[in-house]
Amino acid sequence: MFILNEDSQRTEGRDAQSSNIMAGKAVAESVRTTLGPRGMDKMLVDSGGEVVITNDGATILEEMDIEHPAAQMIVEVSETQEAEVGDGTTTAAVIAGNLLAEAEDLLEQDVHATTIVEGYHEAARIALDAIEDQVLDVEVDDELLAQVGKSSMTGKGTGGLTPAELAETVVTAIGHVADDDRVRRDDVSVYTQVGASSSATELVEGIVLDEEPANDAMPSTVEDADIAILDVALEIQTGEIDAEYAIDSIDQLNAALDAEESELRGYAEEIVDSGVDVVFNTDDVDDRVASFLANEGVLVFEGLGNSDARKIASATGARRVGALEDLDAEDFGHADRIRTDSYGDDDLAFVEGGAAAEAVTVFVRGGTDHIVDELERAVGDALDVVATARESGEVVPGAGASEIAIADRIRSKAAGIEGRSQLAVNAFADAIDVIPRTLASNTGRDPIDTLVDLRAEHESEGRAGLVTDGETVTIADPVEHGVVDPADVKREAIESAAEAATMIARIDDVIAAE
After folding, report:
1. Pick from 159, 135, 218: which is nearest to 485 by CA?
2. CA distances (Å), origin 229, targets 9, 247, 279
3. Are 428 and 99 within 8 A, CB to CB?
4. What angle do CA 97, 38, 388 make, to 5 degrees?
């Protein structure tokens, strides 16, 4: 009896487990060398020749063409980490890969997959308790948030700016959109522009748009601006039915042209009479309308996308209007200043201050596309972790110190666990050790000797991490050196890695259709 299609491929038992674990380990290994302040970069080249140079784990895994379903689960771990807390993607993937490696060793010792899963779940619970105990009993103020941002960006491509300098900008940006216990992270944007040193990166208290005035004669700067957002075609209205008109004389032609001119001038007059200073229109604006408005000193932008229109509405308080006769001062938004500027061949519009100050933009500059792309990723991650730390008010030691403490706690609790689950719990601790071992390896130190030294320092001092300061790498208290991470980053990495590893370890049958 044939149950499966004859073209189907089936892998069972240990072969299926081995194949899945091998795929998961391969994905983790692909990003392991990027971990930490001394992590290496990867160059990714797609089929079209597009090049991406980065050490951001989420970007690397996103760009890789991964087909194996088990490997995809590790990629999903990274994606979940990125979506939830914005950083720690490499940590989560590397831990997941090493949990699989430890599970493979246990399977070879005839430990059942269900026992491994039970042990991993218990170890993850212990790990989360250990993270709670690692949370620093300090106020998470701007100085500490700057340390969080700096830790996130150290080792990433930041061009001519130091992570500390960028961190100050990030903290200021988050401060603009933070209430008492909530951060409006979506109100912070990152806009990149090639053509200057990264030291020209600045914080714009407002939004930046890739737009240029509808007419060159329009003012380049408008102070104390009243703003309207239109969804109106400011051009000659045409019917839906094709029609032809016969003109027998020059007088008829002039009359037709005058009618057009009158219609277009009427649009401009309605806008001017409303008292608005700046118009953002999602539809087209006839050149003659733009010229009339330019003569009246009104600044107009045309052909905006819906996303930009929503962004302007949110930033300025303006309400979108679908007909000129509905235009009223109550629909206007406001900004302290709207200015346009040219950067090479690109024209940008800046909406600053006033109601627009509710939204801010980190305007990132760099000399090449690769530099600004990596800066954008670094700043984006820093914004996420600073927002996370500010909302939760919880940070933990970085530089591998938290992982050392977690592994130590798991091993101490493992002795009280009966049966073979104890083996899985200890294996979980060994998998967590991969983080300090990898940090050591990426700094050129012997990973085994460094791990021994870290454990000894942790036992004697209560806290030990691998602190990088310039060219110097020492075992010390990371908190004293300002190396801290949001506690939520550690929690999410442990939880998502454990979930993916246990799911993969439980698979003992793979049925694939051709």
Report:
1. 135
2. 58, 38, 6
3. yes
4. 70
Residue 245 is predicted with a pLDDT of 55
Amino acid at 435: I
Burial of 392 (0-12, 13-18, 19+ CB in 10 A): middle
Cβ burial, residue 133 (10 Å; 0-12/13-18/19+) = exposed
Model confidence, pTM? 0.80
At 228, which amino acid appears?
A
Is residue 351 within 8 A of residue 449, CB to CB? The reply is: no
CB 220 within 8 A of CB 339: yes
SS (H, E, C) 156-168: CCCCCCCHHHHHH
Which of 57-61, 207-211, 471-475 is most confident? 207-211
More confident residue, 84 or 120: 120
Nearest one of 65, 46, 64, 44 to 54, comparing CA atoms: 44
Containing 512, the helix (H) or strand (E) segment is: strand 509-512
Quick count: other Cβ atoms within 10 Å of Cβ 284? Answer: 15
The 8-class DSSP code of residue 356 comes to G
Residues 235, 310: Cα–Cα separation, whole Å: 23
Q: What is the DSSP letter of 101?
A: H
User: Which residues are known to be catalytic?
Assistant: 56, 89-90, 381
252-279 CB burial, b ≥16 within 10 A, e <16: eeeeeeeeeeeebeebbeebeebebbbb
pLDDT digits (tens, 9 = 90+) for 145-171: 999 898 888 877 666 678 888 899 899
pLDDT tens figures, 449-491: 999 999 999 999 889 998 887 778 889 999 998 889 999 999 9
The structure tokens listed for 410 are 């798991």
